[in-house]
Design a protein that fits this description.
Belongs to the TRAFAC class dynamin-like GTPase superfamily. Dynamin/Fzo/YdjA family. With 516 residues, the protein is of the alpha/beta class. The protein is built from 19 helices and 9 strands. The protein starts with a helix and ends with a helix.
Length: 516
């Protein structure tokens, strides 16, 4: 069975994978895998000693320092305990396989990577920097360092910086799986602490909050923080931990962290105020408490995390199944895939034409309803009126009147009548063309295999449109040619049998007698 330490390492790997995939929490209200992973978030005001606490836990001087907002992007700090004797090193997620054994270069890379995202301005960004530190002097632990809370914007900062930082910090600490490490300087009134105020709002019971008092050695002479450390001034469900950071003089002298830890232990052991709490004070004790608590939280949340991962895997597998199998890279296999997709489209298109899917009935309706209706509206009554018949017959005879029957006259009458068919015939071709284009569009949309290939969809649509346009022109020529053929083959017998759908049906023979 996996140990709790290996579980912390596994959670660290999942967090790194989430960041690579764009899921880094903090800036979204949507539930994500990142939000389900327990983590320790470091919260405090500017100059509260956040950076010094983190460096004390790590045992290395590696964080940027300066005035104003130094931390402008979340820093996900993952600590990995290694065997004794192995060299310490840091590794960034954005620089895989590059080991930093010089921790001053780690500090420089944090600053450079921050500037790459935010520029040289004082802007902040929610995109985290991932730093893993491998050392025999740390415990397995994940900490997230956030920009320090501030009350006013200084020169070079946008007016919204105060609200922007608070919104970013809230987006982390409001999550139920977040463990809050509230950093407060001991030489400041606990009632005015930004970290405690915020943690009280998001965690009123104090169940998720660890209180840390820094700068105990800088308190006024004759004062102490016993009431806070023993939980009387501001009680929490977890005990308060006091920290003594390196002084500014020690930082300038480059006093290493090992010596700083020794001085911290000596301070609490020799202090008349805190001596009885010495075993539960200091950065080393804080790291062990946080690691143990993180292990217990992971143990409690493990079923939910496993369920969420399994659910995400099922959803992704379902989406992959919906998208279809992978496409081969060689040209022959790709051509075969394209032909298979075209056959799938062709099958759907035929179903629309032949039945099984709607569409073919509308094409039949063009010939069964639309064309007859258009023919019935043709002006045959005007064309075959007595006045027009006399006019056509007279014009056809010219200066030589007919002897028996006005053959040229009735040929012109029928030829003129048949020419009326041209308009409805061409309109029928256009109507069928429109319906076929619509069926092509619907068939492409209904071909599931094509959904993952939008470019191929567009190519099929373009090829079909081009072919239908060409077919439309050919069909119009054929249709008009058929009308011309009918008008060129007229006999007396044909004219006698030709029914005329006019208000008063008048046989052509009777028309001839009337004309006479």
């Amino acid at each position: 069975m996996a140990t709790m330490e290996s579980l912390i390492v596994t959670v660290n790997r999942i967090q790194r994978a989430c960041t690579v995939l764009g899921d880094h929490g903090g800036d979204t209200n949507l539930p994500t895998l990142w939000e389900a992973l327990p983590s320790v978030v470091v919260v405090g005001g500017q100059s509260s000693g956040k950076s010094s606490v983190l460096e004390s836990i790590v045992g290395r001087d590696f964080l940027p320092r300066g005035s104003g907002i130094v931390t402008r992007r979340p820093l996900v700090l993952q600590l990995h305990k290694t065997e004794r004797g192995l060299q310490e090193y840091g590794e960034f997620l954005h620089l895989p396989k590059k080991k930093f054994t010089d921790f001053s270069m780690v500090r420089k890379e944090i600053q450079d990577e921050t500037d790459r995202m935010t520029g040289k301005s004082k802007q902040i960004s929610p995109v985290p920097i991932h730093l893993s530190i491998y050392s025999p002097n740390v415990v397995n632990l994940t900490l997230i360092d956030l920009p320090g809370l501030t009350k006013v914007a200084v020169e070079g900062q946008p007016e919204s910086i105060v609200q922007d930082i608070e919104s970013m910090v809230r987006s982390y600490v409001e999550k139920p799986n977040c463990i809050i490490l509230a950093i407060t300087p001991a030489n400041q009134d606990i009632a005015t602490s930004d970290a405690i105020k915020l943690s009280r709002e998001v965690d009123p019971t104090g169940e998720r909050t660890f209180g840390v008092l820094t700068k105990l050695d800088l308190m006024d002479k004759g004062t102490n923080a016993i009431d806070v450390l023993e939980g009387r001034a501001y009680p929490l469900q977890h005990p308060w931990v006091g920290i003594v950071n390196r002084s500014q003089a020690d930082i300038k002298k480059n006093v290493d962290m090992i010596a700083s830890r020794w001085k911290e232990r000596e301070f609490f052991a020799s202090s008349p105020d805190y001596g009885h709490l010495a075993s539960k004070m200091g950065s080393e004790y804080l790291a062990k408490v946080l690691s143990k608590h993180l292990e217990s939280v992971i143990r409690a949340r493990l079923p939910g995390i496993t369920s969420l991962i399994n659910k995400s895997i099922e959803e992704l597998e379902a989406e992959l199944s919906h998208l279809g199998r992978s496409v081969a890279v060689d040209a022959g296999a790709q051509l075969y895939t394209i032909l298979e997709l075209c056959r799938a489209f062709d099958r759907i298109f035929k179903e629309h034409l032949d039945g099984g899917r709607p569409g073919g009935d509308r094409i039949y309706g063009v010939f069964d309803h639309q064309l007859p209706a258009a023919l019935r509206k043709l002006p045959f009554d005007r064309h075959l009126s007595l006045q027009n018949i006399r006019k056509v017959v007279s014009e056809a005879d010219g200066y030589q009147p007919h002897l028996i029957a006005p053959e040229q006259g009735y040929r012109r009458l029928i030829d003129g009548a048949l020419n009326y068919f041209r308009g409805p015939a061409e309109a029928s071709v256009d109507a069928v063309h429109f319906l076929l284009k619509e069926l092509v569009r619907r068939s492409i949309a209904e071909t599931q295999e094509l959904k993952r290939f939008p470019t191929l969809q567009a190519e099929i649509a373009a090829a079909a449109s081009e072919a239908l346009e060409r077919f439309r022109e050919d069909s119009k020529k054929t249709t008009l040619r058929m009308v011309d053929m009918e008008s060129s083959y007229l006999t007396v017998d044909f004219s006698r049998k030709l029914p005329q759908e006019v208000e008063k049906e008048i046989p052509f023979l009777r028309l001839w007698f009337i004309a006479k």
